[in-house]
């Protein structure tokens, strides 16, 4: 059976997938498999992004980055579930973050 892409899943399927990935991440963490844990965490972020409305993330606004206390990210533009922009830490390089990593409580 071919796996569905997150973009093809409905809300119920996404929640199920997040649950499965969370369990796999927990096991990887218990076993001390750091790189596997990072992969599962990334997949969880992607799946969670499909549960959010990309239109509620506004270019020009600054958001706090989840799990990166005090780190701020300014959105330049949106492309699907990815916010493209840069961190406000002096490094001006452009990067893309899944919207689930951006906290709604805007900084600016």
CATH architecture group name of the largest domain: Roll
Structural class: alpha+beta
Q: Major sheet: order of its strands?
A: 4-3-2-1-5
Average pLDDT score: 92
The ordered string of helix (H) and strand (E) elements is HHEEEEE
Please provide the count of β strands: 5
Q: What is the total domain count? A: 2
Task: Please give a structural write-up.
A hairpin with a 6-residue loop joins strand 1 (62-65) and strand 2 (72-79). Helices cover 34% and strands 22% of the residues. A five-stranded antiparallel sheet has the order 4-3-2-1-5. The mean pLDDT is 92. It has two domains: 6-49, Hypothetical protein YfhH domain (Helix Hairpins); 54-103, Hypothetical protein YfhH like domains (SH3 type barrels), CATH 2.30.30.340. The protein has helices spanning 11-31, 34-49, and strands at 62-65, 72-79, 82-87, 95-98, 102-103. It is of the alpha+beta class.
Q: How would you sum up this structure in a few lines?
A:
The protein has 108 residues and is of the alpha+beta class. The protein contains two helices and five strands, in the order H-H-E-E-E-E-E. The longest helix has 21 residues, at 11-31.
């Amino acid at each position: 059976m071919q796996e569905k892409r997150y973009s093809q899943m409905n809300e119920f399927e996404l929640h199920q997938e997040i649950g499965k990935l969370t369990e796999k991440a927990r096991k990887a963490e218990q076993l001390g498999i750091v790189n596997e844990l990072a992969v599962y965490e990334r997949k969880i972020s992607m799946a969670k992004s499909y549960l959010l409305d990309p239109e509620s993330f506004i270019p020009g606004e600054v958001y706090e980055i989840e799990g990166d206390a005090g780190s701020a990210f300014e959105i330049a533009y949106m492309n699907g579930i990815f916010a493209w922009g840069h961190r406000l830490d002096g490094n001006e390089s452009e990067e893309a973050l899944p919207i689930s990593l951006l906290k709604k409580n805007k900084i600016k």
